[in-house]
Amino acid sequence: MQLTAKPSLPNALLISISTPQFKGDEATESLAELARLVTTLGFKVVGTQSQKQSSTQKVNVLGSGKLAEIAHLTGNKGMVENEQEDDVLDEDPLTEISSEIPSNDLDFACADVVVFDCDLTPSQLRNVENQLGVEVFDRTGIIIEIFSRHARTKTAKLQVEIARLNYVAPRLRETSTGDKERQMGKGAGETTLELNRRKVRDQLAELKRELVSVQDVMMDRRTQRSELFSVALIGYTNAGKSSMMRAITGSDVEGENKLFATLDTTVRALYPITQPRILVSDTVGFIKKLPHDLVASFHSTLAEAHDASLLLYVVDASDPSFRSQLEVVHKVLAEVGVEGSKKLLVLNKSDQLSTEQQQSLMDEFPDAMMTSTRNLDDISKLHKYIIGIAQEDMIEEEIVIPYTAKGIVGEIRASMSVVKEEYEYSHIKLTVRSSAIDLERLKKRMLNL
Length: 449
Known about the structure:
Elements: E1 11-18, H1 24-40, E2 44-53, H2 64-73, E3 88-90, E4 113-116, H3 122-132, E5 135-137, H4 139-150, H5 154-168, H6 192-225, E6 229-235, H7 241-249, E7 266-269, E8 278-282, H8 292-301, H9 303-306, E9 310-316, H10 322-335, E10 343-348, H11 355-364, E11 369-370, H12 376-392, E12 395-402, H13 408-415, E13 417-423, E14 427-434, H14 436-447
Parallel strand pairs: 1-2, 1-4, 4-5, 6-8, 6-9, 9-10, 10-11
Antiparallel strand pairs: 2-3, 7-8, 12-14, 13-14
């Protein structure tokens, strides 16, 4: 039997631009997050580089000296010139996320791609690619690519494709002879670039029309579920929401230890099943510096949270940066207009914390709930909490049902919680707990018997 070697992963070099507005721990945490994003795409992070700049808006986002250094790490495939720029403030290498690339060793594996932890303008991207001779990504490009790969539902695919085309449109480039060539026939007089841009505009218009139609269908489905008590799991990507979804609904929702393992909103019933049913939705994970165009995608993927009766803010309590991640969640929720009347902070992954760490967090967040999806007692506690909140809005009432009323008792058991049953000579007396809407609907039905 002959073993086939696995293909090596593309090597990625990460670049951080430190500015007066973006520096220190914030820049370090953001670069570490970028490494996880890049890994999610299947790249191998082989090193990082950083440079202090007064701004990321310059024509040359990096000084030429730093470019020359990076060009060496990518195999000197471009046309960079080793000259220093006057506007460079300082060079400040960050702690390496993976092993450092030895710049004095000519036998090291060159970086195949370079990824910037900031947004680059089309001209900046083009300049850096020309200088380095390898493919260059910015943070937005990486996130959009991840969203594109992980979208599953029609709505998510449409919105991500709209975001992708909005990102790609200004980055379209003319072919080598496109500046002079003119296309014959339809569109005569237009360059290849102009035709491509018009094609993108047409695609965007068609996608937006299709999205409106799909969203109308989704709105109808949410309206049908709106009378049920619903819980929305929200939080930073990789906080363990999908694992919690599986634990409290008994479902097979996908969950992996990577960023954006799931993108589409999933809705399941709380398990063990309650009467009336309680719905639980697992929404897309949040992330820092979310591209503006993708905020629109969150309008759809977080639509379930708009109508949720209870919001569970799930955080990875074992991640030291979860507080700043929680701020991102609050910010994005405010941007998309999601406001819940009831909220619970869930400090997840407690099994990765010591007893002292757990106690410290509970002292800091006394109203939170400490959980681990691997602990059945924790899941049972969360299940009881959800039911308790749901029952706060329920009304308890006694209903008298004559034996001649066929099918009513079965419908009540399917949609309401029966607290007490009494069988009399001519009727059944049920004490039920239900929403005011369902009780009013039942009473009207009883009047027509």
